[in-house]
């Protein structure tokens, strides 16, 4: 009888431990965003604002920051490693690989081009670039990051490639590509408009670069933390979502976005940002 009771107790304890789910005590924090902006007399990295917030609001969990490009990051998530991507574009195919917790609603990436090449670009009457025509022009050299998503609309436009388009693999999500444009190694790249704010805050004089919208890619791009679609990943994303899903968490995320965007871009997307961060001020339903 005693043996039977002991066995039953052991089963109950095992079932209780299993029901509690996996323990999340550390997260490999995969971050390819090296953007830094000058604020006052100092330099701030918006990505560091987010990781510092999470570290302070997830007691007992250690974030282990690791610089990784898009291909490596998604390989680790696909393999079910105990790692989360700090900020990734949300796509239907990625939702099948990962759990997401909302971070930002980004204005769409734009074409970053050297100013002296502006007259050579195929523009419509509103000043938007016809990307298909540009990609077919062998006289202009472009570069994008291998394995990175620029949002559904731009991904579809870029998928066929072009005679002058390079796909570059780097240590992060493509921070070297704008430098390649500055150095006149290529004529254009595709990047979010906040890159020009960051560069402008670190350099003297006017940048020799312009940012132009791409025809057919005007919608803002949602992004979020991505953790593997495993029991561990589900437990990790719930902890992250609970930390971010508060009024203070949403305010931090909005401030991190604000300091990195041009003022005119903020005004253009203000209503969308208001709605997005109002939802972000609460935990994600059903996560």
From TrEMBL:
Keyword line: Signal
| Signal peptide, first to last residue | 1-19
Q: What is this protein called?
A: Uncharacterized protein (TIGR02285 family)
Source species, please?
A: Roseateles saccharophilus
